[in-house]
Design goal:
The complex is a heterodimer.
Chain A (H helix, E strand, L loop, with lengths): L3 E4 L2 E5 L4 E7 L4 E9 L5 E8 L4 E4 L2 E6 L4 E6 L8 E9 L7 E2 L3 E6 L1
Parallel strand pairs in A: 2-11
Antiparallel strand pairs in A: 1-3, 3-8, 4-5, 4-9, 6-7, 7-8, 9-10, 9-11
Chain B lengths: L3 E4 L2 E4 L5 E7 L6 E7 L6 E7 L5 E2 L8 E7 L2 E6 L8 E8 L8 E3 L3 E5 L1
Parallel strand pairs in B: 2-11
Antiparallel strand pairs in B: 1-3, 3-8, 4-5, 4-9, 5-6, 7-8, 9-10, 9-11
The chains are: A mainly beta, B mainly beta.
Chain lengths: 113, 117
């Protein structure tokens, strides 16, 4: 059974710092891995999608890497800003006949001004 | 891009009433949609898979008679919370796999916040 774990559960860093959020999954048989952002009381915003054949994806100050064999992904945020404060969710789509995705519990990020 | 909408965005109801939440794929067809529930400060928990033209598939522990799902068209799935109680208060989110060309990406609705008094 696929399980997704995110570490740390919460993180507070001063503005301007670079930071890394971690995601691990137990079964490497996945189609893709997706990183989402969720603001309090709001829906999900997709940040980056990495296909199983890819090693990384970049969007602006965000860079996500994927090491499928070891079951790990990281989300790197450069030059953090207070507006980056949110919960970041990692989700994998396991290989199989359905389109289900499995979420981690998220990392609550707080950027201190 | 592929857009998923939900209606209503929030609803308050009295205990014992039923509430219907709609999930629509606006510019693509979705034979499958997913319904999630999220309690405060918790992650998303998959409740059920909605299948167009057939019965929904429920995750273990989710009451089928409590959470009725109908997927009557290729762009609309509905979730009805029957005889709602305060413990059903939660944030409900739906998603759909994007059309071909979107590389298996899931698209999420903005969510519906249900408060049962």
């Amino acid at each position: 059974k696929q399980e997704v774990t995110q570490i740390p559960a919460a993180l507070s860093v001063p503005e301007g710092e670079n930071l890394v959020l971690n995601c691990s999954f137990t079964d490497s048989a996945i189609y893709n891995l997706q990183w989402f952002r969720q603001d309090p009381g709001k829906g999900l915003t997709s940040l980056l999608l990495i296909q199983s054949s890819q090693r990384e994806q970049t969007s602006g100050r965000l860079n996500a890497s994927l090491d499928k064999s070891s079951g790990r992904s990281t989300l790197y945020i450069a030059a953090s800003q207070p507006g980056d404060s949110a919960t970041y969710l990692c989700a994998v789509r396991p290989m199989g006949r359905d389109d289900k995705i499995i979420f981690g519990k998220g990392t609550r990020l707080h950027i201190l001004p | 891009g592929a857009v998923v909408s939900q209606h209503p965005s929030w609803v308050i109801c009295k205990s014992g009433t039923s509430v219907k939440i709609e999930c629509r794929s606006l510019d693509f067809q979705a034979t499958t949609m997913f319904w999630y529930r999220q309690f405060p400060k918790q992650s998303l928990m998959l409740m059920a898979t909605s299948n167009e033209g057939s019965k929904a598939t429920y995750e273990q522990g989710v009451e089928k008679d409590k959470f009725l799902i109908n997927h009557a068209s290729l762009t609309l799935s509905t979730l009805t919370v029957t005889s709602a109680h305060p413990e059903d208060s939660s944030f409900y989110i739906c998603s759909a796999p994007g059309p071909s060309g979107y590389h298996n990406e899931q698209f999420f609705g903005p969510g519906t916040r249900l408060t049962v008094l």
